[in-house]
Amino acid sequence: MPSLPTLADRAATAAHADGLGPALGWTALAVVAVLAFMTVVGLLLIWVERKVAARFQCRLGPTRVGRFGLLQTVADALKLLLKEDIVPTGADRVLHLIAPLLSFLAMLLMLVALPLAPGLHVVDVDIGVVYLSACSGLGVIGILVGGWSSHNKWSLLGAMRAGAQVISYEVSAALALLVAVVFSGSLRLSEIVQSQADGWWIWRAPGCGVVGFLLLLVAGTAEINRTPFDLAEGESELTAGFHTEYSGLRFAFFFLSEFLNLFVLAALATTLYLGGWMPLHLPGLAGFNAAMDFVPPLAWFGVKAAAVVFVLMWFRWTFPRLRVDQLMRLEWQILLPIGFVNLFLAAGVVVGGFYPGAG
Amino acid sequence: MDDPNHNGEVRSPAALDPAPCAGGGGRPESDRGAALGPPRPADSAADQAARSPTAEACADPPQRGPRSGDAEMPQSRRMGGPVEAAAPWIDGVGPIGAMVEGARSLARGMAVTLSHLARPSQVVTQEYPENRATLRLPPRFRGQLAFVHDPRGLHKCTVCRICEEMCPNVSIIITARDRPAVSKKELDTFVWRLDSCTWCNTCVMVCPHAVLEFRPTFETAVYDRRLLAYALNRTAGPTWPVIDKLESAEAQAAATEPRAPFDGPTLLARARAKPGDGEEGGDGG
Question: Which of B83, B88, B117 is nearest residue A56 as measured by Cβ atoms?
Answer without folding.
Answer: B117
